[in-house]
Design brief:
Radius of gyration of chain B: 20 Å
Distance between the termini of chain B: 40 Å
Order of helices and strands of chain B: EHEEEEHEHHEHHEHEHHEHEEEEH
Helix content of chain B: 25-40%
Shape of chain A: globular
Strand content of chain B: 25-35%
CATH topology of the largest domain in chain B: Rossmann fold
Structural class of chain B: alpha/beta
Structural class of chain A: mainly beta
Oligomer: heterodimer
Largest sheet of chain A: 6 strands, antiparallel
Number of domains of chain B: 2
Largest interface: A-B, 28 and 25 residues
Radius of gyration of chain A: 19 Å
Strand order of the largest sheet of chain B: 3-2-6-1-7-8-9
CATH superfamily of the largest domain in chain B: P-loop containing nucleotide triphosphate hydrolases
Helix content of chain A: under 10%
Number of strands of chain A: 31
CATH architecture of the largest domain in chain B: 3-Layer(aba) Sandwich
């Protein structure tokens, strides 16, 4: 177990509700919570803003300098670091199930099978998926959206007449991600596995062996590795070669007797922040498996880490748990 | 971890009175907050409660089990509801009148995240006393809903005569005599008749054993004015039946468990519900199990009490069950 510890560098924050997501808006850390509020750390002072009154923030993502939240009140809001809020879209009360944001300010969301995409100029386009959508991700290049649904995933060009490209694979697909080089599309599945496609030729890749569903994945800064949750270690697949992870055993790091619930690759180094279902957080170096302790809860309660987010410069890490415990790690 | 949140599933054929029951549950002064998962918003009176729209999306699981279907929308909704944990005490799922209860029930056993957060409390079926007999002839869904039920509200009994009431009760008894039956007008039942039943909880099976394994005593029906037992007509349903078998003594666990597993693996599609309490040779504790289609869960429970006869009893409710096979298979497990 980790002998080195950065626990003294962690500032704990009592968020008080399920931490749905966290993000840095410029320098300002903030947390989107299950009680409908956002918690900002403004020059170290906690500030709470009610975004979705009497509702829960189900999903949240950063788009450029704003936090985008989707609630079970059917509203999608965008808030900046100063706390000013704009409503982006609202349904007739149907839940917002998935969200994606991009650094150019693009925002995408889904509610049931209806998908919306808003480009940086504010133009909104709509698309109906073949079934309810669980995951959304923008491709790194081009204005293109990956949509995960039952029996596959779809790549949709919101601003082009081209028909959506369907990637079929039987089963229920949950979250979706596209590799930073735009070559691979990867989904997590209901059946405790990942499914990948090489986008150019739709070559299938099946990544299985997980004891639980993978609900968190993260690409390394160089785009060569995909870290995943769902096992009692962080499972890391190599996507460096043209065949992706096929015929290569994945790497493991941070093995413990607790399931990994959340992973986040450091933006610059081959170091992964790994969050567990018992609330522990470790930093694991992929190259040699070295571990540094970030958080070890005093009680042995079941309190899965629900969000882990690095600052763009990799100097700080935000975390939050399902029971409403959060914090900021400042790297030495 | 905190106590799992109970889920009550309300089924019933079109027009039987599900919404009436739901409104009754929500409007009683129980001080509880419910999260209600419905297919159609509308006639539900909600002030305090959380109402979520569902879309009955059925997912087939890629686990080699052909009857293993789950409600994808329920998995998604329950994941979302858990983000506001502490804001509600229980969940009620109202299905459409044409829904098969199996995918709903299986969701609570197949999906590990759902199973970790909530527990299925009971399947409550509302049946229309006037129209059920007809529905059972025409609609396989209605039959499934009766077969699957832990609690049946035979509703609108004021619209039928005692003869007709007898017939419909006998028809229910032919399909599923193990559900707790309540005759109601406007779904008028005390809330504890439908909530907090623990029908799927192996621990609770011990407390509710008479209902769990004993057929309802239709003979004690108060409408039976002549005081004799011959007032009840016996129906045999061609399609859905229940089979109860008893061994007056122990079974060999080395034979019984492989047989049970093998049987539900091969005959799972035709088995709607399975349950039992079994005495294993040289085992001081009772073994209880329950299942839905191919999904089985079982565990050793409390000790057999001194003086309590060590009996092994199993019940299957299903479609065109092969009674001879089940009987031969089970009896061969006797120790």
């Amino acid at each position: 177990m980790a002998e080195n510890s950065l626990a003294a560098n962690v500032k704990p924050i009592a968020a008080g509700a399920h931490v749905t997501a966290a993000a840095f808006l410029g320098d300002v850390p903030l947390f989107a919570l299950g009680d409908g509020t956002a918690l900002l750390l403004d020059a170290g002072n906690e500030k709470r803003i009610v975004l979705h009154p009497d509702a829960a923030i189900l999903v949240a993502a950063r788009a450029d300098k704003r936090l985008i939240t989707g609630g079970d009140d059917g509203r999608i809001l965008a808030m900046n670091a100063g706390g000013s809020v704009e409503e982006i879209f609202h349904t007739d009360g149907a839940w917002i199930d998935a969200l994606a944001g991009r650094d150019d300010g693009s925002i995408a969301w889904s509610s049931g099978r209806e998908v919306g995409a808003r480009d940086p100029q504010g133009a909104i386009k709509h698309f109906s998926a073949p079934s309810s959508v669980r995951g959304l991700a923008y491709t790194p290049k081009g204005y293109r959206l990956a949509v995960a649904h039952y029996n596959g995933a779809t790549l949709w060009f919101p601003n082009a007449a081209a028909p959506p490209e369907v990637f079929a694979w039987k089963g229920a697909h949950l979250d979706v991600t596209v590799s930073p080089d735009g070559r691979f599309l990867v989904t997590s599945m209901q059946e405790n596995a990942l499914h990948g496609w090489r986008i150019a030729d739709q070559q299938d890749m099946r990544m299985s062996g997980y004891p639980a569903k993978t609900r968190s994945f993260s690409w390394s800064g160089d785009g060569h590795w995909l870290a995943t949750s769902g096992a009692e270690a962080c499972i890391v697949w190599s996507f460096k070669d043209k065949d992706g992870p096929m015929k290569k055993a994945p790497r493991e790091c941070g093995a413990r007797r607790a399931r990994v619930s959340r992973v986040a690759f450091h933006p610059k180094a081959l170091v992964i922040a790994v969050g567990y279902e018992d609330g522990w957080i470790l930093l694991c170096r992929l190259t040699d498996g070295a571990e540094i302790l970030v958080r070890k809860p005093q009680s042995e309660a079941h309190d899965p880490v629900s969000t882990l987010v690095w600052a763009d410069d990799g100097r700080r890490l935000l975390f939050g748990t399902v029971e409403g415990n959060a914090g900021v790690l400042a790297m030495p | 971890m905190a106590e799992k949140i109970p889920v009550t599933v309300l089924t019933g054929y079109l027009g039987a009175g599900k919404t009436t029951l739901l409104n009754r549950i929500l409007s009683e002064p129980h001080g509880k907050k419910f999260a209600v998962i419905v297919n159609e918003f509308g006639e539900i009176g909600i002030d305090n409660d959380l109402v979520v729209g569902a879309d009955e999306e059925i997912f087939e699981m890629n686990n080699g089990c052909i009857c293993c279907t789950v409600r994808g929308d329920l998995i998604r909704i329950i994941e979302g509801l858990m983000k506001r944990k502490g804001k509600f005490d229980a969940i009620i799922v109202e299905t459409t009148g044409l829904a098969d209860p199996a995918p709903v029930a299986q969701t609570f056993f197949v999906d590990a995240d759902v199973a970790a957060a909530v527990r299925l409390d009971a399947v409550v079926t509302v049946a229309d006393a006037k129209w059920l007999s007809q529905c059972l002839k025409d609609a396989p869904e209605a039959k499934n809903q009766i077969a699957f039920a832990d609690v049946i509200l035979l509703n609108k009994t004021d619209l039928v005569g005692s003869e007709e009431l007898h017939e419909v009760k006998a028809r229910i008894g032919a399909i599923n005599p193990y559900a707790k039956l309540h005759e109601t007008i406007n779904c008028g039942v005390p809330l504890d008749a439908v909530l907090g039943r623990g029908a799927f909880n192996l621990d609770r099976i011990l407390e509710i054993e008479p209902e769990f394994l004993e057929a309802e005593e239709y003979e004690h029906d108060h409408h039976d004015h002549d005081g004799h037992k011959h007032g009840l007509k016996h129906f045999h349903d061609e399609e859905v039946q229940s089979i109860a078998l008893t061994i007056d003594g122990d079974v060999d666990s080395q034979k019984f468990l492989p047989w049970l597993n093998q049987y539900v693996q091969t005959e799972g599609p035709s088995i709607l519900r399975a349950k039992g309490i079994v005495a294993f040779k040289n085992e001081p504790k009772r073994f209880a199990f329950q299942g839905v289609h191919m999904i089985l869960e079982g565990d050793l429970q409390r000790d057999w009490k001194p003086g309590e006869p060590r009996r092994s009893r199993i019940v299957f409710i299903g479609r065109k069950l092969k009674e001879g096979d089940i009987r031969r298979g089970f009896l061969a497990c006797a120790a």
